[in-house]
Design goal:
It is a single chain. This protein folds into three domains: 5-104 and 148-223, Lysozyme-like, CATH 3.40.80.10; 107-146, no CATH class; 236-312. It is 27% helix and 24% strand. It has eight helices and 17 strands. Helix 3 packs across helix 5. The termini are far apart.
């Protein structure tokens, strides 16, 4: 039975790259916002620091009630991974994966025994633990996650099944979908999660129902892929977890700008260790890579940087 696709949310051609591409993979993400419409509106208005279009989006959004929105034809593409790989490997990888976003508030911040969504500790973001997924231990800086709705998992399975058939995508996924594989999956063909290739990502949430559902509904089976070797000089997973906790302790908009800086630096091989967070500033040191890119990238984002502090002046 064909998936019922809603095309009422469509991105203009200028917000993605409409040229058809050969597809050999599917990537699963979640939005970190309240619903599909919020993610769509963000992609419509989000701009690069210089004011140009980011071309960041996924072809599909699955809302909390299971509605599947097709934002653009899955043969087209947009940036979805934010990889630091050199070209052409980075662009080639982006082009061949169809992105699917699950509408979700994502990782939840635990503060004084309560859970808060969207990285901001405030009454409107308070969430009951009965509606959250408890991973039981730290996963990249978080233990609790917004729980996906059964209708979303049903729709995800049906959509992946249909796309695998339409594009002859192999019905396989790496055997340990919560682990980091990095460039080990550069040539992989099949279904992956964003967290598989980005150590600083937690999407999709570490929920076994995601992958069991894909096995049941789309016949996606696990295959062994050798994980990427991670530098022994720096524990990236621990670093990202500690940085995530610092960002959560900042005012939400200020933390988002600092996160943008971290991501831009990581694309250039520079990793910062954050310390002593305050609402609009945070301490830092260079944990790996060159210091040179820090100042110009911070200035491009409107941040004030000293040798030890990042300050957000206009959050």
């Amino acid at each position: 039975m064909a998936v019922s696709v809603n095309r009422s949310l469509r991105l203009p051609a200028g917000e993605y790259f409409p040229e058809p591409q050969r597809k050999s993979g599917i990537a699963i993400h979640h939005t970190v916002c309240r619903g599909a419409r919020a993610a769509f509106d963000w992609w419509r208005t989000d701009k690069a620091p210089d004011g140009s279009t980011n071309h960041v989006a996924t072809a599909y959004l699955i809302d909390r009630d299971g509605t599947v929105f097709e934002l653009f034809d899955p043969e087209a593409w947009a940036w979805q991974f934010g990889l630091a790989w050199p070209d052409p490997a980075r662009t080639d990888f982006e082009k061949r994966f169809i992105g699917i976003e699950i509408a979700s508030e994502g990782a939840l911040t635990e503060h004084n025994g309560d859970l808060y969504a969207l990285g901001a500790v405030c009454p409107q973001n308070l969430r009951p633990k009965t509606e959250a997924l408890d991973y039981g231990r730290d996963y990249r800086g978080y233990r609790w996650f917004a729980r996906y709705q059964p209708a979303q998992l049903d729709a995800l399975g049906a959509l992946v099944d249909e796309l695998c058939t339409r594009f002859a995508i192999p019905r396989v996924r790496p055997a340990s979908p919560f682990d980091y594989y990095g460039e080990a999956v550069r040539d992989f063909e099949g279904v992956i999660g964003h967290a598989i290739i980005r150590q600083d990502k937690t999407d999709p949430a570490p929920d076994p129902r995601v992958w069991q559902g894909l096995a049941d509904r789309a016949r996606v089976r696990s295959v062994v892929v050798a994980p990427s070797s991670v530098s022994q000089a720096l524990d990236h997973t621990a670093l990202f977890g500690a940085n995530a906790r610092c960002l959560d302790a900042m005012e939400s908009a200020a933390g988002s700008l600092v996160k943008d800086l971290l991501m831009e630096l990581e694309r250039r091989g520079t990793f910062l260790r954050l310390t002593s967070p305050r609402p609009h500033s945070v301490g830092y040191e260079v944990a790996e890579g060159a210091r040179g890119p820090v100042l110009p990238l911070a200035l491009s984002l409107g941040l004030k940087v000293t040798d030890r502090t990042i300050e957000v002046r206009h959050a």
